[in-house]
């Protein structure tokens, strides 16, 4: 397989090598200072935690953070443009691999500078297989399930001694042969709430960790408290809570509390939160929790399912970051981007383990609140100044044509449009034109934000807007202007 690196490749000649050798002593101090300067761009304690947990040098940790940030952004864009041909993506070192189901998709991946891997099953199909297999194997013997994008298969984890029974159940359910692997695990997952006192927030006699500040309060794990439950330090009330099924909650705090877009790094400082762009499989992530502080690892799978004693939770981020009781609800970050809140898992921070996280954007969307980012403000939104308007509501994965399926007429010139989606979601905006009797996309806004702006210069014809809820649900408004 041809491997295309996102880094520049340097070819050193003999003369250049000799010159570099002569400069080594003079430049060593500069290189060290450069590493330190680069590390200061990231949160205090994050680089140190990566060095401790992942065995990296300062330079390697900084390089990984910078690389993961760029590759995750590329992955997110490709997932949208490939649509049904997309079969997942993962990061290996400084390279991005994207699985696709046909040669046309592979060409798009290579054009974006990533490595294309042609596979037989799309991610959408794998998700359906995972649901089918999980339901067939449902019961106390099942630990969890997730899509392994690298092998283009589904993995179902079960208790020791139960593999044969689960394999039989999956086969009888008609799950496609060769699409599922059943693996035994030594420990069954558990949630990480704790009844021991600490310095996070309290729910009766229990303790959990704050996830991320949001408009009027904070998001955390749903298993930490049911709707109406009260908290102390800080004081608040669970206004939204979902567990099992999901594992998110929103706690409304008092008006005298100061909401900061940052996370405790347990090294005497904080990590500023800049947004909530989802990271790719293989990306480095760090977790903050009131029991064990900062720990780092990598994302192993997305949209994973796990079974606790209380029930099944789906749509989670699976990682190899450790966690322990009391860390529940705590923050998961990829660089400065919020990823999710600690749900549960197995193992501990002495021997290592597997931990699952509830995606933060789903929690924000369900609560109808915005993430508080560094500087103390929420992500700016707004769509105004256009001649015509539209509005509607969408569930995650759905789309709608605006202003209706018949569209609108426009003369030659520039068409502009904007979309204001619900906070904490990822809504996209497409401009389509009738061509040869079919609707063809001519421009699009597909960032990770709920809000989009599109500008297109074209000929006269019939156009329409398509709003797509890539992730999250809720109401939207938008507008457009014609020449």
UniProtKB/TrEMBL annotation:
GO terms for molecular function: serine-type endopeptidase activity. Pfam families: Pro_Al_protease. Residues 404-413 have a biased composition (Low complexity). Residues 1-28 form the signal peptide. One of its GO terms (biological process) is proteolysis. GO terms for cellular component: extracellular region. It comes from Promicromonospora thailandica. The keyword Aminoacyl-tRNA synthetase does not apply. This is Streptogrisin C. Keywords: Disulfide bond, Hydrolase, Protease, Serine protease, Signal, Zymogen. Residues 121-177 form the Peptidase S1A alpha-lytic prodomain domain.
